[in-house]
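Notebook, p. 212. Picked up where the previous page left off. The plan for this session was modest: take the two constructs that came back from the sequencing core last week, fold each one, and keep the raw output in the notebook itself so nobody has to go hunting through shared drives later. Recording the first one now, exactly as returned: residue sequence, then the structure token string.
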Amino acid sequence: MCIEDDKTLVGRFQAGEAAIFDELYSRHIDKAYNLAYRLTGDSDTAQDICQDAFIRVYSSLGRFRFEAKFTTWLYTIILNLARSHHRKKKWAPIDDFPNIPAETNGNGMLHKIDRKMTKQAVRRHLQKLPTREREALILRHYEGMSCSDAATVMGCTEETIRSLSFFAIRKLRDALREEGFEL
């Protein structure tokens, strides 16, 4: 069985195979949700953003011009919807990040407790970062996007992404050290 890339699927959709959208949706809904959740900190809001994002994708996919990767375009839509939500309502605290694998090579319960406390502190301080620094950090380090793709999503230069990520990481590191975490 050959798995088609996003570009091929989009091309098939543009050629009239509307049912192929289900494949694009299935392929990207989990990552879309994770990004929306990380940006908003609220499960219901993340689901609403994903629903709105995929409605926009469906209605605009026929005009998609391949100037960026499909995922970059999708993430741009999600980021803009999250920003719109943020303007309407203050950011909610982030309780948990889905799909972060738990480390299994620790030394029992103490290691698990320490890891959980560290993750909670990172989430708490991530929430306190300026919006653009938080967005850059999430796109680069949680979503694994390249500087180029993250810059496209955020509508800025690659250097801006590097700078925002650098300052975000430095602020997180300093805040964690102030709380006594060894990094």
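Okay, moving on. Second construct, recorded in the same format:
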Amino acid sequence: MTTKRRHSANRSQNSGNRREIALNTFASNSPKRRPSLINVRIWQTGSDGIDRPTVKGIALAVRKLPKLASSLAKAEARARELGLLEDDEEQRDEI
């Protein structure tokens, strides 16, 4: 099974670490059964200079992405109601 990255968005977190959101498709004999994942993960650069994914993150089937997005929107709305987020935080903290 091979992985083919479709899209990724990176942002430096601190020296040697970065966040990455990637959409991955795995090779399959049947195009209809090609599983796709969204992977939100922190990557770290090792002492050898090679980037490796850490255990900090989440991976799930792309078909579950709409439910995740809906749940995150509800969580954000509730956090704003509770005063845990301010309006300017939305622009400042991008992935």
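Notes on construct two before I forget. Helices lie at 65-81, 89-92.
Flagging for discussion at group meeting.
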